[in-house]
Amino acid sequence: MALRGGDRIDELNAEPRGVELMRTRRPWALIVASLLLVVLAVVLWAKWSESRAEIERLRAELKVVYTEAEAIRTQAALAQQRVALLEKQLAGRAARGAASEPGAVLVEKPKPKAPAKSTKTKPNTR
User: Fold this and answer.
1) Residue 5: left (phi > 0), alpha (psi -120 to 50), or beta?
2) I need a surface site. Which of 10, 44, 48, 50 has the fewest CB within 10 A?
């Protein structure tokens, strides 16, 4: 029996058998859906934490790779400078060798580098 706006609880004639009939069914679909949602949330959280650890590992590896690449790039630049210097020395020796005796070997000492000029300025003292 359903109550309406003007009905009062005192006026209801509820039989004991009627109470048993009014018992509602459990919403099994809702219970199953909520349990499925919990399982899905746990699985997604586990995968998220796993991928987060993988990202941190890859970032660390990428940092190492960039450091190694920079070291190799620096070595290559130094090697190119050394090759250019040796080519200049070889060209100079070849030019001098052509002008001097054919069997003579010239030994050239490398020139020391001039000290770099300081770009510091004196502070204004007024």
Assistant:
1) alpha
2) 10
Binning pLDDT at 50, 70 and 90, where does residue 31 land?
Answer: very high
What does DSSP assign to residue 5? Answer: T
**Residues 97 and 104: beta-carbon distance below 8 Å:** yes
The Cα 90–Cα 105 span in angstroms is 12
Whole-structure pTM value:
0.44
Tokens representing residue 95 in the block:
């030019």
- Cα 120–81–65 angle (5° rounding)? 90
Q: Residue 47: in which H helix or E strand, if any? A: helix 28-99
How far is the C-alpha of 108 from the C-alpha of 40, rounded, in Å?
78
